[in-house]
Each structure stands twice: as C-alpha cells, then as structure tokens.
Amino acid sequence: MALPPQDERTLPAVVLQDVDQRPLEHALAELQSLIDQHGHVIVVCSQAAPASVERRLHTVRALLETDRIALFRPPLPPLGLAVLARQLRQLASCDLGPGVLASAGRLLTHYIHAGALLGSVARLDHVPVGLKSHARSWMPGSQFGVVAHPVPQLVRIGPEAALDGPEFGTWLLVARGQLPADWVAGTLAPSWRVQGLRETPLPAESPGWWGTGRLTEFCAYLPDLSVLYQLVTSVRQSTCHWCGIDVIGDRCVFCSATPPVYDTGKDTRGDAAPGHRGDGALGHRRDPALGHRRERRALTR
User: Fold this and answer.
1) In this predicted structure, which of 84-88, 171-175, 179-183, 284-288 has the lowest mean pLDDT?
2) Pick from 162, 37, 14, 199: nearest CA to 88
3) Which of 267, 262, 266 minimizes the C-alpha distance to 285?
4) Distance from the Cα of residue 153 to its chain's centroid
5) Nearest C-alpha neighbor of 10 from the set 69, 77, 83
6) 145 burial via Cβ count (<10 Å: 0-12, 13-18, 19+)
7) Which of 149, 44, 47, 48 is nearest to 105 (CA)?
8) pLDDT, tens digit, 9 for 90 and up, residues 146-179
9) Model confidence pLDDT, tens digit, residues 173-216
10) Which terminus has fewer CB within 10 Å in the chain: N or C?
11) Inter-residue contact 56 to 19 (CB < 8 Å)
12) Residue ranges of the alpha helices (H) in 141-300?
C-alpha cells in the first residue's frame, strides 16, 4: 500500500505488483530498470506477504548480481509498514546517501506505534492472546484494543480500557475496516495526546495480518520531515568495508556485510604488542582490496 504524499517533497513510490506471480524475466527487467534510473532501490516488503514474494525478491537480487537492492521486512502491521515507507519517501528528498536512507528504516521503526481495534482475537497470531481474552472474543459485541508494535498490548474495550502510547508528539493515522472507529478517535487519540488525526483506506493485507475483517487499524507516527531528518543524521555513520557505502547501524543493508573484527595485537599479558594499536578494531578501517577480509555473505537465503 502506497500512502499519498505527506508533503510536496515526498517522492512517489513504485509498487511491485504480483512480483511472485509474473514471469521471472518481467521482475528482473523491472528491478533492473529501477536501478538504471535511480542507482539504488529500497524494497519495503510486508511480513504479511506470502513467502513466495520474499523468495522471488531474493532470486531477482541474486540473478542481477547487484549490491544496490536493499530488502527490508520490518515487524510492522500493514498500516505501520505503509507509514514507514512514506517516511523513507520523505527522507529521499534530502541529502542522504542510499545506505543511510535504507538504514534509517530500522531506526524509524522504533518510533512507530501500530495497532488496531478488533472485533475478535481468536485468530490473532502476532500478539500474545491469553485464554481469557480468547474466550471473550467469542462473546457477541466484544471489542479489543491491540498494539502490535513496539511493545505488544491487548485490552478488552470497556470504561477503563487504555493502551500505553508514545511519549512524544505524534499524528494518528486511522484506517477504518468493518468496525466503527469511535473508540480510536474518541478515546485512544486523546489519551495518546496526538497532534492530529488523519484517515486512509484499510490496506488489503490488514484482515489477514490481524486475523479478522472486523477491525479498524491505527498508527501513531512522526509526520515532520525536519524531525525525521534530525533523528537520522544524529546517528553515527560508518562506511561499509565491503561495498564502501555509508550506513548507520552494524550491518550494511545492501551487501549484508558486518564490520570486520581485526586482531587487536595484544600479547598474553594483556598489553598491546609493539607496533599495534589496542583500539584498532574501533578506529581502523581496512580497504577491501587489501589484506584479509571476511567471507562475503550470500545474497540469498
């Protein structure tokens, strides 16, 4: 699901339709065209998508023999994933390198609070459901407030029902399904002190992800580009020792390489040996063409 632009700077999204059902050569041509046009491609894929989609994406990436495709499947419900993809589209208009932009997805995931109002939790697999809540879900008229990310929560809707929300200013995006959104707009939004509320159509994957069509999905998020940019640029950047791209975090999102572990040169007494720096693993970066390097990780699973 591609959400409409948040502002005039938000770049458009490219939706890969039926990537696992079309002929392989069509998917190869589409991804190659995107690489030729943009240089790098960040694929944000829902965990609600069939496993065949992920296999096809890894196959395409391997056949193209490229380190310029980043595959990202964060543990977010469909609406939360759509919000994250739009945030990356917002940041794509800034002066961020492709590695930093792709790495930002992991960082921004922590600031998304995603959940739903459900009419049943009998088939909910992504949030722990106790036997008592499971039994109550069969009672007519029962409703449950659920947060799937960042910390799972589940409450039965009643006068005292409450869900812990973000401790910073957010907007709330609401996607109405086959359940009225009165509790979300009238109770949840004020308790989370959201700065604004917007509505959007329900993602097609949402009923399958939540285990019921009787739902209203919601997501609290940071809407301002300036705040997103400050969050990303405040994190220390490093250069991947394998492909040379700038990233944030401990693993390159394009080639999957992790920082190499160098010999600190310490002798048996624990002191640094002559001619070696004891902090070489922290401060030294070796050119991939020189010396020993770790075995490159496979592109496919």
Assistant:
1) 284-288
2) 14
3) 262
4) 19
5) 83
6) buried
7) 44
8) 999 999 999 999 888 899 999 999 999 999 999 9
9) 999 999 999 999 999 999 999 999 999 999 999 999 999 999 99
10) C
11) yes
12) 182-183, 189-191, 206-210, 225-233, 280-283
User: Would the pLDDT of 301 be above 50?
Assistant: no
Per DSSP, which regions of the chain are E strands? Answer: 41-44, 69-72, 113-118, 144-149, 153-156, 171-176, 197-201, 215-221, 237-239, 246-248
Q: 195 with 159: CB under 8 angstroms?
A: no
Cβ neighbours for 210, distance < 8 A, ≥ 6 positions apart: 77, 116, 118, 124, 126, 146, 217
User: Has residue 288 got a pLDDT over 50?
Assistant: no
Note whether 175 and 217 are within 8 A (CB). yes
DSSP state of 239: E
